[in-house]
């Protein structure tokens, strides 16, 4: 219990996703899970996980593995456990893959083969409950090389409730922190003008507050819209709100 309380305390006190991720990866390694992937998006559609650029993806896998699955081919979209997570919440043993191998697509089979080559063969996936229709968040826990799925399932029988709770705590903390996706790398000035628009200020108001011209304000807004991949300033404000960048302490 002291170990769990210490973990929760450290996670709650973390001030950045990088700090939290280091804490969480170290904690999961103690249970035998030494490679993790966390993915979250607020922009799914009925038929897609949404653009890769709008997803937050954290990984402790070797770079070569990340490159194979998250490159231009985006094979991660066809991962068997992503298929499970798209329709379920809770924790699932990777024995599901073996039980449903006959259902895998050609690309799903390719992902399974890459996983075999990289010793990503035993583990658990947690699909988190979400409150927004277009949101989806998943944690994939890969067991250390040498552990069979049967051994991992026994670990889960013994410690699964604690592991699942720790992952839920990490997920909820991530959701509360400002984070950047591959697309959403705004400058502090671009975020600031969006924040002022969000409070109801006009471009002229913002120009006076920031000590710049209205044309400069519009330039910041235009570049912000382009970076975020949206057509309107209202859409841009909504997107950075999803990413907790409104009034971010890192602005």
TrEMBL record:
Keywords: DNA-binding, Transcription, Transcription regulation. The keyword Cell inner membrane does not apply. The keyword Aminoacyl-tRNA synthetase does not apply. PANTHER family: DNA-BINDING TRANSCRIPTIONAL ACTIVATOR DEVR_DOSR (PTHR44688). Residues 179-244 form the HTH luxR-type domain. It comes from Aliiroseovarius zhejiangensis. This is HTH luxR-type domain-containing protein.
């Amino acid at each position: 219990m002291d170990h769990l309380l210490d973990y929760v305390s450290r996670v709650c006190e973390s001030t950045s996703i990088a700090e939290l991720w280091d804490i969480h990866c170290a904690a999961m390694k103690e249970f035998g899970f030494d490679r993790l992937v966390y993915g979250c998006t607020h922009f799914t559609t009925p038929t897609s996980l949404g653009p890769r650029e709008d997803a937050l993806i954290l990984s402790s896998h070797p770079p070569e593995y990340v490159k194979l699955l998250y490159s231009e081919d985006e094979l991660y979209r066809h991962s068997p456990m992503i298929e499970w997570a798209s329709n379920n919440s809770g924790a699932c043993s990777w024995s599901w893959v073996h039980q449903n191998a006959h259902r895998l697509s050609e690309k799903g089979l390719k992902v399974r083969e890459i996983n075999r080559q990289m010793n990503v063969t035993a583990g658990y996936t947690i699909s988190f409950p979400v409150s927004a229709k277009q949101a989806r968040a998943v944690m994939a826990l890969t067991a250390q090389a040498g552990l069979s799925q049967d051994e991992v399932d026994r670990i889960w029988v013994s410690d699964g409730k604690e592991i699942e709770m720790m992952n839920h705590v990490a997920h909820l903390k991530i959701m509360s922190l400002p984070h950047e996706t591959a697309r959403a790398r705004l400058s502090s000035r671009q975020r600031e003008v969006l924040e002022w628009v969000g409070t109801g200020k006009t471009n002229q108001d913002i120009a006076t507050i920031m000590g710049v011209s209205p044309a400069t304000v519009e330039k910041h807004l235009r570049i912000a819209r382009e970076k975020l991949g949206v057509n309107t300033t209202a859409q841009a404000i909504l997107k950075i709100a999803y990413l907790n960048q409104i009034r971010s302490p890192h602005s």
